[in-house]
Amino acid sequence: MSTIPLPTDDEMYQALLRSDSEYDGLFFVAVKTTGIFCRPTCTAKKPLQKNVSFFSNTADAIAAGYRACKRCRPLDVAGMTPAWLDALMEQVDVDPLRRWTNQEIRSLGVDPARVNRWFKANHGLTFLSYLRCRRLAGALAQLSVGDDPTTVAYAAGYESLSGFRDAFQKWFGTTPGQIDNGGAVLTVNRIPTPLGPMIAAADNDHLHLLEFADRRMLETQIKRLSARLKCRFLPGDNRLIEQTAREVTEYFSGSRQDFNVPICLLGTPFQQQIWELLLKIPYGETSSYERLAVAAQNPRAHRAVGRANGDNRLAIIIPCHRVVRSDGQLGGYGGGLRRKEWMLRHEFAVVRGERSNDGN
Ligand SMILES: [Zn+2]
């Protein structure tokens, strides 16, 4: 994992106060008065700014003498579950596809009714819904992402159970009709990145979707994709998702500037035209809505360009983050402004590094 430049202390402190999930995994906050470190999304009482230190990874926080918070469990891959659930959750981790009977749950010394009450109270789901969600959404497909504590923590930030209600609604609450209507199947999986996990969806020929998992736009994009392709989504891995994961990882490490994974630009002719133009913006450079509108031979269409930009379903690969306002302001970004800023800084730094290397 490359060293990630941290945002300013003020920015991180504000994110901490908001419990902003966009920052989860980006930094960890240690509290000098308690000796504990947390994720930014921790539900514990927020510390005073003068009492906090920020770390870009859990290993550094531990090395500085802090211990992991028991509430937000920055080290814990399994997320926040009470101890009496551990035995059951362990089995679920071992075999996520298993279909549990009440008797089997009881055989672990756990009362099924209590399990359901806990899931209902904490996540608004029954245990069976949770399992179904897990099976189908694959939201926990990447529980074990390696021994690197930073990687584990990045994953853990999103793989906690609290993400499940959201995931469930996202994947099923809004598109229940699509589960059994036949049609194409898109394989869906999560790809961990230093800026939080992304959702990727691909068939055997093309990558169709790549977006940060916590974005509201994701839901809309999935609906549109479902409608266009008449497809349903199933969790898992395929060749193209693996290729995407590899290339995305290389992008974040600074060793990749262009993507080779085959992509599908399903959209209106205008959207396709804009997306093609976006693909031509070089790594480490930016363009503006106005310039793109001119390039599309429709100089007055910069608003429509902005919309087509926002409709991009392939974050990073179709580099809509390289479009800024003509006054130099960052402008918007579907994946969150913070990520746009990070990626631009990252690309500038890589390009600068290359230039200085060339100069040597
Ligand atoms: Zn905490």
From TrEMBL:
Family affiliation: Belongs to the MGMT family.
Cofactor note (record): Binds 1 zinc ion per subunit.
Enzyme kind, highest EC tier: transferase
UniProt name for this protein: methylated-DNA--[protein]-cysteine S-methyltransferase
Residues annotated as the enzyme's active site: 38, 320
PANTHER family in the record: METHYLATED-DNA--PROTEIN-CYSTEINE METHYLTRANSFERASE (PTHR10815:SF5)
Cofactor(s) needed by this chain: Zn(2+)
GO molecular function, one term: zinc ion binding
Keywords, sorted A to Z: Activator, DNA damage, DNA repair, DNA-binding, Metal-binding, Methyltransferase, Transcription, Transcription regulation, Transferase, Zinc
InterPro entries per record: Ada-like_dom_sf (IPR035451), Ada_DNA_repair_Zn-bd (IPR004026), Bifunct_regulatory_prot_Ada (IPR016221), Homeodomain-like_sf (IPR009057), HTH_AraC (IPR018060), MethylDNA_cys_MeTrfase_AS (IPR001497), MethylDNA_cys_MeTrfase_DNA-bd (IPR014048), MethylDNA_cys_MeTrfase_DNAb (IPR036217)
Top-level taxon of origin: Bacteria
Domain HTH araC/xylS-type: residue ranges: 106-182
UniProt cross-references to NCBIfam families, sorted A to Z: ogt (TIGR00589)
Family annotation (CDD domains): ATase
Entry EC no(s): 2.1.1.63
One of the protein's GO biological processes: methylation
Positions contributing to Zn(2+) binding: 38, 42, 69, 72
Reactions mediated catalytically: a 6-O-methyl-2'-deoxyguanosine in DNA + L-cysteinyl-[protein] = S-methyl-L-cysteinyl-[protein] + a 2'-deoxyguanosine in DNA; a 4-O-methyl-thymidine in DNA + L-cysteinyl-[protein] = a thymidine in DNA + S-methyl-L-cysteinyl-[protein]
